[in-house]
Amino acid sequence: MGSNLTLAQLGWKPFFDRQVSDVERHDCQPVRVMSVHRGRVSVSGEDFEDSISSSVPHPAGAEDRPTVGDWLLVDRDTRTLVRILERTSLFKRPAPGDDRRLQLIAANVDTLFIVTSCDQDFNVARIERYLVLTREVGVQPVVILTKADLSSSPDSLVETVGALQSGLRVELVNGRDPLSVAGLKRYCGPGDTVALVGSSGVGKSTLVNTLKGSDSIATQPVREDDGKGRHTTTVREMHRLGDGNGDGGGWLVDTPGMRELQMSEVASGVADVFEDVTSVSLACRFANCTHAGEPGCAIRSALDEGQLDPARVERWRKLAQEDQANSADAAARRSRSSKPKDRR
């Protein structure tokens, strides 16, 4: 079984090519992870398509395991995983319900579609969390607002999101209308990779189906009482845009719905997304100001003068504190894992 796609069509770029030695070019096959299953990954390369073990020889840390979008070197003869190539980007989060474990979401993503609907799911704080994650990773964010018919003023929601950060791209679409979503294809040209994130029920799978021109991904209705959806997507998987005859664009990664998104080691992302707040905090009298009543607090002065939105400042404060606490936990985990084990 083999893939009829070239490495370039799969997303291979000079960044990855520079990592491969002459010996590895002879002995190994570059492949990309199309989907992740328990203990195995489905991969595609030039004249290569298979399901292989995801075990990494001599893993060094929590990130040293393949996730969707990764580029791997596979032994040409044994078809076993040799190593994971360095990533251009990696989306990850502390695993829900287990902060000792790291969940890898997707790798080597060029653009992130932050998908939310114009109903009960619309939540500024959640959008900001995704923006922080995106800025920290260094990937272009695009906020996609779906189900405009469920809002009496969808244009005002577009303005609300656009005001969160200068230059932020916001798209209002009908996920079921091919003409409405056609403009999104410009973010996903040949070899590009776009990941979609958002809560269950916002229309991510519907959007992927429409962009692909098929209904291969199952969708489920949203509950009317609270607007929440079921987790239709259970496996992170790459889907190619195009007509299936070799003429296509880039890749879409549909991810399971995430209502809980903890922040960890994203200090620079917080500073970037909340630049209006952090720039004011630099004028505080004390470098370790907690902005809770200390003398000379520039944040408090800006709030009193109406220069900052109190709700936005509170969201910034919450994210910064959460990042600080979770980052400390992450550092502790790395410290424990680096200690030699007692083999007595």
TrEMBL record:
Annotated CP-type G domain residues: 99-261
Pfam families from the UniProt entry: RsgA_GTPase
Annotated keywords: Cytoplasm, GTP-binding, Hydrolase, Metal-binding, Nucleotide-binding, Ribosome biogenesis, RNA-binding, rRNA-binding, Zinc
The protein's Enzyme Commission number: 3.6.1.-
GO molecular function: GTP binding; GTPase activity; metal ion binding; rRNA binding
PROSITE patterns linked to this entry: ENGC_GTPASE, G_CP
BP GO annotations: ribosomal small subunit biogenesis
Residue ranges the record marks as coiled coil: none
Claim: Nucleotide-binding is one of the keywords in the record: yes
Positions with a binding annotation for GTP: T146, K147, A148, D149, G198, S199, S200, G201, V202, G203, K204, S205, T206
Compositionally skewed regions (Basic residues) per UniProt: 333-344
Residue ranges annotated for the EngC GTPase domain, each copy included: 107-259
Job description of the protein: One of several proteins that assist in the late maturation steps of the functional core of the 30S ribosomal subunit. Helps release RbfA from mature subunits. May play a role in the assembly of ribosomal proteins into the subunit. Circularly permuted GTPase that catalyzes slow GTP hydrolysis, GTPase activity is stimulated by the 30S ribosomal subunit.
Annotated family: Belongs to the TRAFAC class YlqF/YawG GTPase family. RsgA subfamily.
Name the UniProt record assigns to this protein: Small ribosomal subunit biogenesis GTPase RsgA
Organism for this UniProt entry: Novosphingobium chloroacetimidivorans
Lineage: Bacteria, Pseudomonadati, Pseudomonadota, Alphaproteobacteria, Sphingomonadales
